[in-house]
């Protein structure tokens, strides 16, 4: 059964090249860092959840909402093939019930904050803004794009960032949760300008404070699509680190 069905829309992706050693303590057992052109990435991602259903039901007041997360990329070898997935450092949403469900059932790292978003449409451009409030201060990520979506090229950096179809959660040194995320291949909008005004230390801790003064390696805006999250399974493994 599908655990969750929704639409992920207008995904703003700010991607940073980092030292893989930074992420060692966060790597779930049985997975390893997934590199692109020998580069290790973390991504700051803001997007909209829309038409959300949990176990086929819509929860009142929890159907459309924002999410901002910090994630990195891993892979796991199984049955002769690589599964490519993501690990979340933290996921921020404005709904306490979503945080409770995700943290209780999936052992994820959700946090509830006041959030808001805005889309500013002009003749030739669109601007997407995601904000969340931390210690009475609004944090903001913003991207201005051209109007018409274009294909994400094969073997591109954008493909690497968007084409990961599994989620992995570190439970302890030997236990990992794995779940599958299904969606069609996405399109992207050409980015014209962007702005980041957030407190990385207060939001993500001292490990990621250096991102405060680091310029993103790349910035994308993916159109998104309908998605389905399959029920999790527990992997009892020996840690690779």
From TrEMBL:
InterPro entries: DUF2071 (IPR018644). It comes from the Bacteria. It holds the Pfam family DUF2071. This is DUF2071 domain-containing protein. It comes from Flavobacterium hibernum. The lineage of its organism: Bacteria, Pseudomonadati, Bacteroidota, Flavobacteriia, Flavobacteriales.
């Amino acid at each position: 059964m599908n655990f969750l069905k929704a639409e992920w829309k207008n995904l703003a992706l700010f991607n940073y090249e980092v030292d893989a050693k930074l992420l060692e303590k966060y790597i779930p057992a049985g997975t390893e860092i997934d590199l692109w052109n020998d580069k290790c990435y973390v991504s700051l991602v803001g997007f909209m959840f829309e038409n959300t259903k949990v176990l086929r039901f819509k929860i009142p007041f929890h159907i459309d909402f924002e999410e901002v997360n910090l994630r990195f990329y891993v892979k796991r070898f199984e049955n002769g093939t690589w599964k490519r997935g993501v690990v979340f450092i933290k996921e921020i949403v404005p709904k306490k019930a979503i945080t409770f469900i995700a943290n209780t059932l999936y052992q994820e790292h959700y946090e509830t904050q006041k959030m808001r978003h805005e889309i500013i449409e002009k003749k030739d451009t669109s601007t997407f803004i995601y904000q969340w409030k931390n210690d009475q201060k609004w944090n903001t990520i913003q991207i201005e794009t051209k109007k018409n979506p274009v294909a994400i090229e094969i073997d591109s950096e954008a493909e690497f960032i968007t084409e990961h179809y599994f989620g992995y959660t570190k439970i302890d040194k030997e236990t990992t949760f794995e779940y599958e995320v299904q969606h069609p291949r996405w399109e992207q909008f050409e980015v014209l300008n962007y702005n980041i005004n957030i407190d990385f230390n207060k939001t993500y801790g001292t490990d990621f404070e250096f991102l405060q003064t680091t310029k993103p390696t790349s910035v994308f805006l993916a159109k998104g699509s309908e998605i389905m999250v399959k029920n999790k399974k527990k992997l009892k493994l020996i840690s690779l680190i």
